[in-house]
Design a protein that fits this description.
Layout lengths: L7 H8 L12 H19 L11 E6 L5 H12 L3 E6 L11 H11 L2 E5 L3 H9 L5 E3 L7 H15 L6 E5 L4 H12 L3 E5 L8 H13 L3 E5 L2 H5 L4 E4 L11 H7 L7 H4 L7 E4 L11 H4 L6 H20 L1
Parallel strand pairs: 1-2, 1-3, 3-4, 5-6, 5-8, 6-7, 8-9
Bound molecules: phosphoric acid mono(formamide)ester and norvaline (NVA).
Length: 321
């Protein structure tokens, strides 16, 4: 774990009122703080202690795409923190029929203490955050999924006891989930290996940024088109769907392009014996992952999904508190 040299109160003060759009906007210390806060909150909750840190506060949740985990974990998280959450389908809001992002942001700021948004366009979320005076939290865009990555690392931290120096292999599409995962791993000084098919690589600019962050923290990031090279000696092996929401027209082409990138018993034989299998879910069994792996003894996908709740409670309490 990255050392937190600043005192915790200084880090906590620096998080109040902030947006969470990308983990690139946060320091490694701030991410370490959020992970520790999430772990503490989970342990407190399991001990029956749930302080109402957001009593009387309301989170608006705007969705342009489907969701199970993000929607439910944010809503339950707000309830557990003593506040409220309000689900809004973007189609039903005036923004769905052309009201400007500028006006929407200003109006939402009059009612809400925070906004969580799942949107098609990361640029739109950035614009919304510019015009919203309360914290805006990214619940998935075309480029990033930061709350997912915090839950992912919390799960590895719980199982392995530390993150610094651990190896994570991401095999599959160089997508939103991959971007945030590798940036989070870099912040925590992990060794990250990314294997994608040609033409579906991790964003080149983000790769350079992730490498610089990792190197500053004693970790590393490398990208390859060879799944075996990525998975060798990994502590955690991660994949996501080959076709993300909004890319359905490309399904057939992607199925062909991703042949050889399935996480199966032959591939994970190259990882450490006690490797963890992780997937953000929803999953397609027998496409990106073999049933024997996702339903096998090394799979932590449900603990990982559960940790969305705890990671996001830490984010909510830190930003909205
Ligand atoms: N992993 C994730 O974000 O799941 P949902 O799409 O169900 O929210
Ligand atoms: N990459 C997937 C993640 C879903 C949680 C998507 O964007 O559809």
């Amino acid at each position: 774990m990255v050392m937190m040299e600043k005192n915790l109160t200084t880090i906590a003060d620096g998080l109040k009122g902030r947006d969470l759009l990308s983990l690139l906007d946060y320091t490694s210390e701030e991410i370490a703080y959020l992970l520790h806060f999430a772990k503490d909150m989970k342990e407190d909750m399991e001990a029956g202690n749930m302080p109402p840190l957001l009593a009387g506060k309301t989170l608006g949740m705007i969705f342009e795409k489907h969701s199970t985990r993000t929607r439910i974990s944010f809503e339950v998280g707000m309830i557990q923190l003593g506040g409220h959450a309000m689900f809004m389908n973007a189609r039903d809001l005036q923004i769905g029929r052309g009201e400007s992002v500028y006006d929407t942001g200003h109006v939402l700021s009059e009612y809400l203490d925070g906004v969580m948004i799942r949107a098609n366009s990361h640029e739109m979320v950035k614009e919304l955050a510019t015009h919203t005076s309360v914290p805006v939290i990214n619940g998935l865009t075309d480029i990033f999924h930061p709350c997912q990555a915090l839950a992912d690392l919390l799960t590895i931290l719980e199982v392995k006891g530390s993150l610094l120096g651990k190896k994570i292999a991401y095999v599959g599409d160089g997508n939103n989930v991959a971007h945030s995962l590798i940036i989070a791993a870099a912040h925590m000084g992990m060794h990250a290996a990314i294997a994608t098919p040609k033409g579906f690589e991790y964003d080149a600019d983000l790769l350079e940024k992730a490498k610089a962050i990792a190197e500053a923290n004693g970790g590393s990031v490398f990208a390859t088109n060879d799944p075996v090279e990525a998975v060798v000696n990994a502590d955690a092996v991660y994949t996501d769907v080959w076709t993300s929401m909004g890319q359905e027209a490309e399904t057939e082409a992607r199925l062909k392009a991703f042949q050889g990138f399935q996480i199966n018993d032959a591939l994970v034989a190259h990882a450490k014996d006690d490797y963890m299998f992780l997937h953000c879910l929803p999953a397609h069994r027998e496409e990106e992952v073999a049933t024997s792996v996702i339903d096998g003894p090394n799979s932590y996908v449900f603990q990982q999904a559960g940790n969305r709740l705890h990671a996001q409670k830490a984010v909510l309490a830190a930003l909205l508190g």
